[in-house]
């Protein structure tokens, strides 16, 4: 059974002394050194906020969908018509780990 992804995180490259964002097979340099942890964490937050979720190009079988894809589609469909957008965001965030 393959290992579960740890998600996007910071990694300090010991050779260069710079922080790198690791997200699965993606390695993105932040340009910040070991003494600039807060700036590197801010770069990580920006990366997470701006990365695009992969979208399917057609219908999928229910067994092929992930919970994250269903939640993302739900938010896309409902966010404009909901009074409590923050409540919706909190609920989806709580469910996203599953």
Question: What do these coordinates show?
Answer:
This protein is α+β, with helices and mostly antiparallel strands. Helices cover 39% and strands 19% of the residues. The chain has three helices and three strands. Strands 1-2-3 form a three-stranded antiparallel sheet, covered by helices on one side. A hairpin with a 2-residue loop joins β2 (18-23) and β3 (26-33). α2 (67-78) runs antiparallel to α3 (85-96). The radius of gyration is 17 Å and the shape is globular. The two termini are 18 Å apart.
Features:
single chain; 98 residues; alpha+beta; three-stranded antiparallel β-sheet; 3 helices
Brief account:
The chain has 98 residues and is of the alpha+beta class. It has helices at residues 37-50, 67-78, 85-96, and strands at residues 9-13, 18-23, 26-33.
Radius of gyration: 17 Å
Strand-and-helix sequence, N→C?
A: EEEHHH
Distance between the termini: 18 Å
> How much strand content do the residues show?
15-25%
- What's the count of strands? 3
On the 0 to 100 scale, the average pLDDT is 82
User: What is the SS-derived class?
Assistant: alpha+beta
Q: How would you write the strand order of the largest sheet? A: 1-2-3
Q: How would a textbook summarize the main sheet?
A: 3 strands, antiparallel
Helix-strand blueprint:
Layout: E1 9-13, E2 18-23, E3 26-33, H1 37-50, H2 67-78, H3 85-96
Antiparallel strand pairs: 1-2, 2-3
Helix pairs in contact: 2-3
